[in-house]
Write a sequence for this structure.
């Protein structure tokens, strides 16, 4: 779930989950903590894509920019200079994973396939999924055409493409920049700002995008619950109510189930979309 900015202290008692008249215990967790890495059943996954045709930052600089993200225990994958992608890595292993590139760069077709595979892999993860595309802060340089940016996936997508150019003036009352009619004697200047279009967040540059990724994550929460197989009813909606969170506004939400399968001797956890409809009842 994504919430608007609020001061509510979240806990398991804020929400109730029910289906067909039965209530089920719910556990609430956050993907972002102020002073420590969060304890989550499913970690947040962040896929970073350096768009074709833009200057690539040095690997050490890229890892440094991602330091605060990695400190949260998030798993990060980045496309290498040869077109391949690193495994999802933690702070201790991302730098090494970036250096393990192939001796020969991929062809354009191979790099396109690698990007598409990385995107589809990100879609399947349980927990929060974030896509960050670096276009070097420049308009007119598209994201890889293999990435279908679709808000229906409930993945938050950020593109560092320069944001939007706005005319602002220096507001002496607080020392910052303000949009709108300028008082007499104040000169307008142009300033780039982030904006949202069709669910995609367009950022000024990569560094500010990473800061916004972290800032936005403060309002993301996971609600987990379990319904016994004998009580599951595919035809009945699942209802989430918030009896103890007056004024809380939900910006976005999704319902999914988690399935495990054995692949090459490894247990793989992935998400599936259940047939039940999700109903949110806000106070």
């Amino acid at each position: 779930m994504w919430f608007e900015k609020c001061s509510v202290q979240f806990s398991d008692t804020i929400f109730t989950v029910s289906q067909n008249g039965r209530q089920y215990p719910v556990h609430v967790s956050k993907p972002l903590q102020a002073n420590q890495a969060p304890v989550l059943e499913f970690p947040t996954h962040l896929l970073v894509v350096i768009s074709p045709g833009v200057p690539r930052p040095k690997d050490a600089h890229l890892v440094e920019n991602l330091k605060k993200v990695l400190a949260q225990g998030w798993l990060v994958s980045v496309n290498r200079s040869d077109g391949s992608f690193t495994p999802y890595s933690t702070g201790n292993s991302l730098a090494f994973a970036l250096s393990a590139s192939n001796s020969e760069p991929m062809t354009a077709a191979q790099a396109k396939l690698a990007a598409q595979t990385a995107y589809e892999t990100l879609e399947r993860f349980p927990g929060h999924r974030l896509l960050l595309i670096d276009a070097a802060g420049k308009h007119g340089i598209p994201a890889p055409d293999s990435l279908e940016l679709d808000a229906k996936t409930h993945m938050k997508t950020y593109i560092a493409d320069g944001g939007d150019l706005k005319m602002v003036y220096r507001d002496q009352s607080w020392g910052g920049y303000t949009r709108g009619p300028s008082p007499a004697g104040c000169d307008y200047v142009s300033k780039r700002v982030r904006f949202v279009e069709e669910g995609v967040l367009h950022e000024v540059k990569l560094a500010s995008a990473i800061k916004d990724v972290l800032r936005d994550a403060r309002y993301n929460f996971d609600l987990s619950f379990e319904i016994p197989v004998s009580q599951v009813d595919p035809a009945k909606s699942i209802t989430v109510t918030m009896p103890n969170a007056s004024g809380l506004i939900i910006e976005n939400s999704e319902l999914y189930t988690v399935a495990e399968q054995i692949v090459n001797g490894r247990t793989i956890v992935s998400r599936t979309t259940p047939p039940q409809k999700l109903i949110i009842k806000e106070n």
